[in-house]
């Protein structure tokens, strides 16, 4: 640090701006200002610098004049400007420039809906307001291509050969771009097919745009040259949308200083945790600018105090809670979704998991619920004096854990009032009365009424348990022991919850830095400057490619070193880190790997000179997934170099040693599990090094309150930080078998966490792409009667179906279920949905019991189990035998021994049928079955730990209580529907009858009548009148209809409830024997799972009048030959409802499958995707319009076999309440000779090179009568800030699970 110079590190957050300043004399200044306060200053960071300079130099500095920079050595900043612009959609006006045929590609995205149970599908808006389609096309050369075109062939940057089928039509492009300028749009994002390897066309478009006068052009090939057109396109649009906005802010900040901060060291924090010069700061790498500073701050400070210990960062503020992990190096992700925009760029893996102190508290159907709704900053918690709801902050206030006298007085109309404790207490009293009324109604008043404090404490316990689930996912879910970690807390609210969260997770140590309240700002002072270079690749990692790898590393390293040298770094301060983005061939799971370094002892070249990347990849892959794949080539997707310019580290000041016992400021009453306890209150600034504070105690810091719970001890370190040792003492509260509504909510989270961790084990240890990468599986916990308790993820077609499978085994095997048995089943008569879904069931006998104490099961979709077509999903099957191997009740493990020979024999048995084959992927089947057994074993371990702690009777009792809670929720919903129906009727009845019918395309009727008992909340779902079993495969097993009923009930309830057996307790379902919904034992069923299930849902929603019909189809498309096979489902329009339009181009109801990225599709298969866009106007008309379907057109490059399995080609998706029907779908084949054939809904046909298949998917039905002029109403727009936005790898993993 230069003599006489100031250093400033600033985090400009959404609400507050935090400042850490190092003065020339070594003094440290900390300041916190409102980020927006236009009455007093125009820019908070500049104002903070002005105030500190003025106060420390005793010189008056006019706030209206530019600041002199002579006394400033450097400024480092993180900002949420980009994040807020993304969340609030307040960025630059931009347009998308994209290859012709793909104008709606980013609107469709991956075609999955974000929340599977939302009938009103809410997807974030795209960032662009207009689209220009560029007449150009390049395709990858394909060795199997039999289309001969005279065209230019070019080798791309990845080594792939590219064929230029159509050059850029520059004249048309110029005219289209001029139209954008005339509309006032001056920023564009350019996204062309395969530009990751061939960027010439994008560069040409960029030149044309700049010449015409566009002020900003983001080329996807420059912003992030990675394969996958959709995320690369999102990244480019985010850059075009955010970068001008960010640069305006940066320019405005700089204008507040003399010479606009020229020749000054001004750095901004990027999402990857590295600093970059002000001029290079761009939108796509700025989204996590603020949180990244916090990660750097806790990583650097905790690692210094606890070297070598892994750390969990826990940042709980007023509006969000972030968790992350550090273990000697930063954990990055390279594709993550924020506010619906998937960005490809290095980002720290910061997981936003809860709404922080603003999480709203609810009591629903007997369950304590915390969030996900947030009070936000406005209106904020009830105690903020703005009429807000009860929140976590209010609970802490009512329990004495927040002290108003030490909290900023910034509330009320005059903004000078303290927190309003009386308002919080009044609302808690009202809520407590509601809860006590409910409990009294459940047990007849046997239990004593709960106090306000017990209710508030209950909500905190539930909130803490909810926040522990993602921490377990970050640690245990990835093979790490949670208890070995140090919990580092920062943010204003984290210190109030730290001790409880650490104790729940078995963590013994909590670290709270003295600057925890401004740790993001402090982290920027500690961070290094980073410059990254990256380019795509498509080579095999082999000796033949090593010289190429070394050459590219040398080029990229030189670029990094040059850039850092220009910033003033000496060679000794620069470190470069090489990385390869590696994956196994034919998989999508790429890992960014650094090298294992070594020295060469011979001249033989076995690895690149930069190190051994393959062993690094194998080690990481094995750690992540539990195995490696032999004899499979490893592909290089990207080559990356991270250049780091190391800054001089700040020296932390040593505080004075504490003398004598610490002196408390006061003693307050604070509520804990033991009741109200006397609690000492200390000010951190009055404590000295070595002072020990036994709990219970409250330590007040400038910007946070730290609660030291009973049996915990805080100690002040030499640098003024706080280390809390978490004790396990205290008398455990005895939990009985009777219902405790608080404990019910905690068990609900715990049971779900068990199912989630089972899923992680299954994903890590499985072999097949379907389970490992598509995540097509479910894991579940069942009670002793086989009733479902919890399952994860919530795949609609699996809901309730596994319960049928478990309960069938109980009936079928009776007493022949023994310890050491594991049962395999997939037969539709035994609770199966379709044959590839193999269910593995493990009965659990606790400590020598003679009957199972509970059951664990996992269901996974196996890629092949034999049958007449590869993939075991034939579109033209007529019997079950043609669809693959069947297991009714097979003991996969008997007496602890895996029955490999016997299961292999059954898997190969379909080959005995003429024209059929045994499984084509036997080793994958066996590996995945072992993985399912291992996942079940993990579930057994976790439930057994729970039983060891609470006792078997208590755990089984709460399994039943959880089911009863779901039952209450469903009864409440049925009674509400019935009351609404009777209100609209003149007659008063005790029963309400609802009815509806619809038809499959072959004319088979699906008929339903629903009889609801208003008083009891019971309902009979009677499918009598439904058509006969069909000679085809659209027959649906009973389990499929049960799943559809549960899905519809949950969707109509409208908020989270435990999805378990209880949902069906008030429901009786009548299946007519021999019908399409209850077929004979050997009936073909594959279409029932993917098609008939959708029609059942349509009929249920029609009966209830809940929503118009969605596309009612999954549009199953398969093509292939003896060497390759490809399967996809394609989205359509969703139905409109009361108050909302249907979403276009989205999957609905019983499926949510993501679609393969266009560039990956063309890279791997001999096809060209020529169109993928919305079929505008195909949604039904009405007061609220149905969503539009999709047009998808494939050009075949070689002879293949095409199969289609679709519906809604004859009967249209219905409209409701006067709304128009959606358009029917259509399957057209355009032969190369000019003929056009309508393929119908279900067929298999050979195709030749040059033939085209056009898929037109159905639209959704409209809702309500349209106005006379045909116009529709605008729906109520829902802002993002009513529910916190999840983010990070935990959220991305769950989203991918639910996209199956």
Task: Describe the 3D structure.
The chain is of the alpha+beta class. Helices cover 28% and strands 24% of the residues. Strands 20-15-14-23-24-35-34-31 form an eight-stranded mixed beta sheet, with helices on both faces. Strands 37-36-40-39-38-41-42 form a seven-stranded antiparallel beta sheet, sandwiched between helices. α2 (81-88) packs across α7 and α22 (1038-1053) packs parallel to α23. The radius of gyration is 31 Å and the shape is globular. It starts with 5 loop residues before the first strand and ends with a helix. Residues 598-605 and 1276-1281 have low confidence and may be disordered.
Which secondary structure elements does this structure contain, and how are they paired or packed?
Layout: E1 6-12, E2 16-22, E3 28-34, H1 44-57, E4 72-79, H2 81-88, E5 94-99, H3 105-108, E6 130-134, E7 137-140, E8 152-155, E9 161-166, H4 170-182, E10 187-191, H5 200-212, E11 216-219, H6 220-223, H7 229-254, E12 265-269, E13 275-277, H8 289-305, E14 311-316, E15 321-326, E16 332-333, E17 336-338, E18 341-343, E19 347-348, E20 351-354, E21 359-364, E22 367-374, H9 392-398, H10 421-443, H11 452-474, E23 486-490, H12 498-505, E24 509-512, H13 519-526, E25 529-536, H14 546-566, E26 574-584, E27 591-593, H15 613-625, E28 634-645, E29 666-672, E30 675-683, E31 692-694, E32 697-700, E33 705-708, E34 712-716, E35 722-726, H16 741-765, H17 769-772, E36 777-782, E37 788-792, H18 801-813, E38 822-825, E39 837-844, E40 854-861, E41 890-894, E42 897-898, H19 900-908, H20 922-950, H21 952-983, E43 991-999, E44 1005-1013, E45 1018-1022, H22 1038-1053, E46 1067-1070, H23 1086-1104, E47 1116-1120, E48 1125-1129, H24 1158-1164, E49 1167-1175, E50 1189-1196, E51 1200-1205, E52 1226-1230, E53 1236-1238, E54 1242-1247, E55 1252-1256, H25 1289-1298
């Amino acid at each position: 640090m230069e003599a006489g110079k100031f250093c400033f590190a600033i985090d400009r957050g959404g609400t507050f701006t935090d400042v850490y300043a190092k003065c020339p004399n070594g003094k440290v200044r900390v300041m916190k200002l409102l980020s927006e306060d236009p009455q007093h200053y125009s820019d908070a960071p500049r104002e903070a610098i002005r105030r500190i300079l003025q106060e420390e130099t005793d010189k008056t500095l006019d706030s209206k004049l530019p600041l002199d920079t002579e006394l400033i050595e450097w400024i480092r900043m993180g900002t949420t400007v980009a994040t807020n612009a993304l969340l609030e959609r307040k960025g630059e006006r931009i347009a998308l420039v994209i290859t012709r045929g793909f104008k709606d590609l980013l609107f469709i995205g991956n075609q999955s809906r974000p929340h599977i149970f939302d009938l009103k599908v809410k997807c974030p808006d795209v960032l662009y307001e207009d689209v220009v389609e560029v007449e150009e096309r390049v395709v990858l050369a394909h060795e199997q291509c039999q289309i001969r075109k005279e065209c230019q062939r070019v080798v791309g940057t990845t080594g792939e050969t590219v064929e230029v089928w159509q050059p850029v039509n520059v004249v048309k492009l110029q005219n289209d771009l001029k139209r954008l300028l005339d509309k006032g749009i001056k920023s564009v994002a350019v996204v062309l097919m395969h530009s990751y390897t061939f960027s010439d066309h994008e560069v040409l478009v960029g030149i044309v745009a700049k010449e015409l006068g566009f002020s900003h052009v983001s080329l996807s090939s420059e912003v992030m040259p990675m394969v996958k057109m959709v995320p690369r396109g999102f990244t480019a649009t985010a850059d075009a949308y955010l970068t001008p906005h960010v640069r305006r802010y940066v320019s405005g900040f700089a204008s507040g200083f003399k010479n606009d901060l020229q020749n000054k060291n001004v750095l901004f924090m990027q999402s990857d945790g590295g600093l970059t010069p002000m001029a290079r700061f761009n939108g796509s790498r700025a989204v996590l600018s603020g949180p990244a500073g916090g990660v750097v701050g806790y990583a650097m400070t905790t690692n210094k105090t606890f070297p070598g210990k892994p750390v969990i960062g826990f940042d709980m503020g007023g509006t969000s809670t972030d968790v992350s992990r550090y273990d000697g190096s930063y954990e990055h992700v390279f594709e993550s979704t924020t506010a619906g925009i998937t960005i490809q760029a290095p980002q720290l893996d910061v997981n936003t998991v809860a709404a922080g102190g603003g999480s709203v508290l609810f009591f629903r159907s007997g369950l304590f619920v915390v969030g996900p709704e947030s009070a936000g900053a406005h209106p904020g918690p009830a105690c903020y004096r703005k009429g807000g709801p009860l929140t976590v902050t209010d609970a802490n206030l009512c329990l004495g854990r927040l002290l108003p006298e030490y909290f900023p007085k910034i509330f009320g109309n005059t903004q000078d009032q303290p927190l309003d404790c009386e308002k919080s207490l009044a609302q808690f009293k009202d809520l407590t009365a509601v809860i006590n009324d409910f409990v009294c109604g459940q047990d007849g008043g046997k239990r004593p009424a709960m106090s306000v404090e017990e209710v508030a404490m209950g909500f905190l316990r539930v909130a803490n348990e909810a926040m522990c689930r993602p921490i377990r996912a970050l640690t245990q879910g990835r093979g790490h022991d949670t208890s070995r970690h140090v919990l580092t807390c920062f943010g204003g609210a984290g210190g109030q919850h730290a001790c409880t969260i650490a104790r729940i997770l078995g963590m013994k140590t909590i670290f709270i830095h003295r600057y925890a309240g401004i740790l993001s700002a402090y982290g920027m002072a500690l961070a290094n400057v980073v410059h990254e270079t990256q380019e795509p690749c498509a080579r095999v990692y082999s000796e033949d490619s090593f010289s190429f790898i070394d050459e590219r590393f040398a080029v990229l390293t030189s670029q990094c070193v040059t850039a850092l040298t220009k910033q003033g770094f000496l060679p000794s301060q620069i470190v470069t880190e090489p990385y390869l983005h590696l994956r196994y061939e034919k998989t999508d799971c790429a890992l960014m790997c650094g090298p294992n370094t070594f020295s060469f002892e011979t001249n033989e070249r076995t690895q690149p000179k930069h190190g051994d990347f393959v062993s690094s990849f194998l080690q990481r892959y094995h750690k992540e997934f539990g195995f490696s794949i032999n004899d499979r080539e490893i592909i290089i997707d990207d080559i990356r170099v991270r250049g780091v310019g190391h800054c001089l580290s700040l020296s932390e000041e040593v505080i004075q040693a504490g003398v004598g016992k610490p002196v408390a400021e006061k003693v307050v009453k604070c509520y804990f599990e033991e009741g109200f306890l006397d609690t000492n209150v200390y000010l951190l600034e009055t404590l000295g090094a070595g002072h020990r504070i036994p709990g219970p105690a409250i330590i007040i810091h400038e910007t946070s309150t730290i609660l030291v719970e009973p049996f915990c001890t805080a100690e002040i370190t030499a640098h003024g930080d706080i280390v809390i040792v978490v004790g396990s003492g205290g008398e455990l509260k005895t939990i009985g078998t009777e219902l405790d509504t608080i404990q019910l909510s905690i068990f609900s989270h715990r049971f779900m966490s068990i199912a989630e961790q089972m899923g992680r084990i299954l994903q890590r240890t499985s072999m097949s792409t379907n389970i490992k990468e598509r995540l097509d599986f479910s894991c579940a916990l069942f009670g002793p009667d086989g009733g479902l308790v919890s399952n994860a993820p919530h795949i609609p077609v699996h809901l309730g179906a596994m319960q049928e499978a478990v309960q069938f085994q109980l009936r079928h095997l009776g007493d022949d279920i023994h310890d050491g048995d594991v049962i395999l089943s997939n037969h539709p008569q035994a609770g199966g949905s379709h044959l590839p879904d193999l269910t593995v069931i493990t009965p659990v006998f606790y400590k020598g019991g003679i009957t199972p104490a509970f059951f664990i099961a996992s269901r996974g979709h196996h890629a092949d189990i034999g049958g007449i077509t590869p993939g075991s999903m034939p579109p033209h099957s007529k019997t079950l035998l043609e669809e693959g191997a069947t297991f009714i009740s097979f003991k996969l493990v008997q007496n602890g021994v895996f029955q490999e020979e016997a299961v292999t024999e059954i898997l190969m048995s379909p080959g005995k049928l003429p024209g059929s084959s045994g499984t084509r992927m036997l080793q994958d089947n066996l590996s995945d079955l072992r993985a399912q057994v291992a996942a079940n074993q993990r579930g057994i371990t976790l439930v057994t730990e729970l039983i060891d702690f609470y006792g078997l009777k208590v755990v089984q009792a709460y399994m039943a209580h959880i089911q009863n809670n779901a039952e209450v929720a469903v009864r409440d919903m049925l009674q509400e529907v019935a009351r609404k129906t009777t209100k609209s009727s003149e007659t008063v009845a005790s029963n309400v009858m609802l009815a509806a019918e619809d038809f499959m395309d072959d004319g088979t009727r699906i008929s339903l009548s629903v009889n609801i008992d208003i008083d009891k909340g019971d309902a009979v779902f009677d499918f009598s009148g439904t058509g006969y079993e069909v000679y085809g495969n659209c027959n649906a097993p009973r389990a499929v209809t049960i799943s559809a009923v549960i899905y519809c009930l949950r969707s109509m309830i409208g908020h989270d409830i435990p999805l378990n057996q209880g949902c069906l307790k008030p429901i009786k379902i009548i299946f007519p024997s021999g019908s399409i919904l209850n077929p004979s034992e050997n009936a073909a069923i594959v279409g029932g799972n993917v098609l008939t299930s959708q029609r059942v849902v349509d009929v249920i929603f029609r009966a209830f009048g809940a929503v118009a019909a969605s596309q009612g189809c999954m549009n199953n498309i398969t093509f292939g030959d003896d060497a390759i096979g490809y399967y996809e489902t394609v989205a359509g329009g969703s139905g409109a409802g009361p108050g909302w339009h249907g979403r276009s181009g989205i999957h609905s109801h019983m499926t949510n499958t993501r679609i393969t990225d266009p560039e990956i599709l063309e890279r791997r298969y001999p096809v060209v995707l020529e169109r993928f866009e919305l079929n505008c106007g195909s949604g039904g008309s009405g007061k609220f319009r149905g969503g539009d379907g999709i047009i998808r057109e494939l050009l075949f490059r070689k002879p293949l076999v095409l199969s289609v399995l679709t519906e809604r080609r004859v009967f249209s998706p219905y409209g409701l309440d006067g709304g128009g029907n959606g358009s029917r779908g259509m399957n057209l084949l355009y032969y190369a000779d000019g003929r056009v054939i309508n393929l119908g809904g279900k067929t298999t046909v050979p195709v030749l090179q040059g033939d085209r298949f056009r898929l037109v998917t159905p639209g959704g039905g409209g809702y309500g009568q349209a106005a006379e002029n045909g116009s529709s109403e605008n729906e109520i727009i829902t802002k993002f800030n009513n529910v916190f936005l999840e983010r990070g790898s935990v959220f991305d993993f769950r989203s991918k699970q639910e996209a199956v």
